[in-house]
Amino acid sequence: MKLRHFRAPTMHQALAQVKRQVGPDAVIVRTRTFKTGGILGLGRRPIVEITARQADAGGGGALRRQMGARRLRCAYGLEAPPAAGAAAEPLSPLPVPDAARGRPAVEALANDEIKNQIVDLRDLVENLVREQRQLHAPQMPEKLFDLYLDLLQREVAEEIARELVQDAQRQVSRDQLSNINMIRQKLVGILDKMISAAGPIAHNLDGSARVVAFIGPTGVGKTTTIAKLAANFKLRQNKKVGFITIDTYRIGAVDQLRMYAEILGVPLKVVVTPAELAEAVGSMQEMDYVLIDTAGRSQNDQIKLRELQAFLTSAKPHEVHLVLSGTSHHSHILHAAERFGQLGVDRVIFTKLDEAVSFGVIFSVVRRLQVSLSYITTGQDVPDDIEVGSGRRLARLLLGMDLVGAAPMASLSGQAASSF
User: Fold this and answer.
1) What pTM does this model have?
2) Quick check: helix, strand or coil at residue 123?
3) CB–CB of 352/247 below 8 Å?
4) How far is the C-alpha of 198 from the C-alpha of 371, rounded, in Å?
5) Cβ atoms within 10 Å of 114's Cβ, excluding its own
6) Per-residue model confidence (pLDDT) at position 303
7) Contact, 281 vs 290, CB < 8 A?
8) Helices 360-369 and 180-194, interaxial angle, to 10°?
9) 224/226 Cα distance (integer angstroms)
10) In a 10 Å sphere around its CB, with 0-12 CB exposed, 13-18 middle and 19+ buried, how is residue 158 labelled?
């Protein structure tokens, strides 16, 4: 007979398909479960597949259905299969429907069997979940394990998430383990210490120009971030600022920075070679800050990265800030951070946090690169949507205790911000 395959999210739905399309006397040949979809193993959905065929011509449908149900229970470990060579255990007799009782009796029997299987499978799944929890976190109470899973879903690296909840467990008493709010407050303190915050860019005490370069992949918002910083330095701190750009590859990049330079009334120099860059930096030594905008590079383009390294060597910046977008995929951010980190990065800026789905990757990047967080940006508005990086602020964002843009804006010098 021809085999047919039926798939559904639950065993009940799959059996219902078999019953509806093959009939109540269908013979179950095989069952299996697997997961599909999701990202990096998260959000995958379980699927139940049943392989069935029509019953052979003649009687015995109820008997075959009982045998199929037992085969199903054996496949899921709900019943031990018979030992090899052992005599077949006699099956309990099932009522054979006759013309007087008709089909409804068989229907009711099949429904009862399905209900019993659902109950057994639910108990089995609950036991498996408990076993998996004990396997992965043998010393972790239920509340902490739920918090651990929540951190994983927020894209915190597994080893960091485990370390966090274990540290939190050591800092609270046994009676406090059920107080999830207290545990979250402990996590805020732990995450705050984990993030090295660089603070705002400071001017040189000897009066020379502070040269700061900004590098990163394409489309992360380097130019807009530079404009926000320049506006705060010039308009809020009354400092002298100069722009230099080597971004002559991207169409409109120079025009965008030139527009900002005209609005702010700051000088702009466009260079195309490392030698020109060194000369431009030397000509702006009367400035308090010289901000260098670079062209976005793909982290996979080694030639472009070597060219960028030559520019940085020529400019000799006091600080190199790697700009990364909070909207990028977790693996892409980590890969970009590792590649650009080889160019002497000592600060990192995360942009577009107002569009980010989660914030866990920030902790992974800062931990892996061992660099300090300098700024985060939370929108497109210049100069307002930028904040000095803070481990406590990021921790509260990660744990859902703060909203992006909900905290009162502080200027980059640490004073209360005035409106423009």
Assistant:
1) 0.62
2) helix
3) no
4) 9
5) 16
6) 84
7) yes
8) 30
9) 5
10) exposed
Q: Looking at residue 92, what DSSP letter applies?
A: P
Please give the order of strands across the beta sheet that includes 45-53.
Answer: 4-8, 45-53, 27-36
User: Which pLDDT score is estimated for 130?
Assistant: 55
* Rg, Å, the chain Cα set: 32
In degrees, to the nearest 5, what angle opens at C-alpha 5 toward C-alphas 47 and 61? 115
> Do 2 and 13 touch, CB atoms closer than 8 A?
no
Per-residue pLDDT at 410? 45
β-strand partners of 244 = 269, 292
CA distances from 117 to 24, 33, 226 (A): 16, 15, 63
What's the pLDDT at 29?
A: 73
CA separation for the pair 23, 325 (Å, rounded): 55
3-state secondary structure of 411: coil
Q: Indicate where the chain has its CATH 3.40.50.300 domain(s).
A: 210-398
Residue 286 forms beta bridges with which residues?
none
Report pLDDT digits (tens) over 105-114.
Answer: 556 656 766 7
Place of tokens 């959000």: 43
Kindly give the residue spans of alpha helices, DSSP state H, lying in 318-402. Answer: 330-340, 360-369, 391-398
User: How far is residue 237's CA from residue 264's CA, in Å, rounded to a whole number?
Assistant: 13
Q: Looking at domain 210-398, which CATH architecture does it have?
A: 3-Layer(aba) Sandwich (3.40)
Residue with tokens 């910046």: 317
- As a whole number of angstroms, the distance between CA 118 and CA 356 comes to 40
What pLDDT, on a 0 to 100 scale, did the predictor assign at position 406? 47
Instruction: State the virtual CA torsion across 246, 250, 256, 262 in degrees, nearest 10.
Output: 30
Helices assigned H by DSSP within 154-271: 158-171, 180-194, 222-231, 253-264
Query: Of 371, 350, 374, whose CA–CA distance to 361 is shortest?
Result: 350
CA distance 296 to 293: 9
Alpha-carbon dihedral of residues 92, 97, 101, 106, nearest 10 degrees? 70
Residues pairing with 215 in the sheet? 322
pLDDT of residue 315: 93
d(CA 99, CA 60): 16
Phi, psi of 327 (to 5 degrees): -90, -10
Q: What is the pLDDT of residues 52-87, one digit of tens each?
A: 887 765 545 555 555 555 555 555 455 555 555 554
